[in-house]
Amino acid sequence: MHYTTTFIIIALVFLLSAAAFSAQVDAVQPKSCEITKGFLMKTVKVSGKSIKYVAYVPPTYDPKKPAPTIVFLNGAGECGTDGLRQIVVGLGSAVMTDVEKWPFIILFPQKQTVKSNWEDEDAMVMAILAKTKKELNVDSSRLYLTGLSQGGHGTWAIAAKHPDIFAAIAPICGWGDETIAKKLTKMPVWAFHGDADEAVPVAASVDMKKNLEAAGGSCRLTIYPGVGHNSWDKGYRDEFLAEWFLQYHK
């Protein structure tokens, strides 16, 4: 697992409190009504199956104004069907430590199994996005995609499936191939990786930068010296990624 026992206990207490606070998690809320904010537990139906996920609504959310929105894809350690674990590591924990830094609606789908790839869950991701557009005032011109490890790969792969949907992407310690790169030549990309990563070698991000450039695109790549697989804490907490996202519109 990517997190300490102490942190997961604190996070689970937070999640249970949030769940108890939000009694309407599955209701479709009209944009004009009073909106519950924070981390909200929800469900979406995909091929007849109910799948749990979390939607984060920031304190600054105004239903009268279109809000920039991020889709976050979790790593292997947070896969499952509980619908909660995916907010503990990565972007969710970064938001918990600095709410003001992230004035976005953030969607947290959960990859169901470690053995699958995120592109296998594409229908779920798109269903959650479609449902959120009905519930909240999503700015479709400011949709962003990011994820870590398996979710870093998913960021590359799902963006390649939907290059016209996302305005910018930020894959962290992920990987891809030339086929993916050729579909993202017009996509703003900021990738992150630790050069001491033994789970996903830094060469994976270096190669994707080369693939994009060879195909006529570009990629901003931040490599952290001496950092292992957990390059997401630095990427989400130490960088100005939120501001970088907001530069880009569709």
List the helices and strands and how they pair.
Layout: H1 5-21, E1 38-46, E2 49-57, E3 67-73, H2 91-97, E4 105-108, H3 122-135, E5 138-148, H4 150-161, E6 168-172, H5 178-182, E7 190-194, H6 203-214, E8 220-224, H7 232-237, H8 241-246
Task: Label this structure with key terms.
250 residues; alpha/beta; six-stranded mixed β-sheet; 8 helices; globular; disordered N terminus
Tell me what you see in this structure.
By secondary structure, the protein is α/β, with parallel strands linked by helices. 32% of the residues lie in helices and 22% in strands. It has helices at residues 5-21, 91-97, 122-135, 150-161, 178-182, 203-214, 232-237, 241-246; strands spanning 38-46, 49-57, 67-73, 105-108, 138-148, 168-172, 190-194, 220-224. The strands form two sheets. It has a six-stranded mixed β-sheet with strand order 1-2-4-3-5-6, with helices on both faces. A two-stranded parallel ribbon has the order 7-8. It is globular and about 45 Å long. The N and C termini lie far apart (36 Å).
- The total of helices stands at 8
Structural class: alpha/beta
Report the count of strand segments: 8
**Can you tell me the residue ranges where pLDDT is under 50 for at least 5 consecutive residues?**
1-32
Instruction: Estimate what percentage of residues fall within beta strands.
Output: 15-25%
Report the C-alpha radius of gyration, rounded: 17 Å
Secondary structure: helix percent: 25-40%
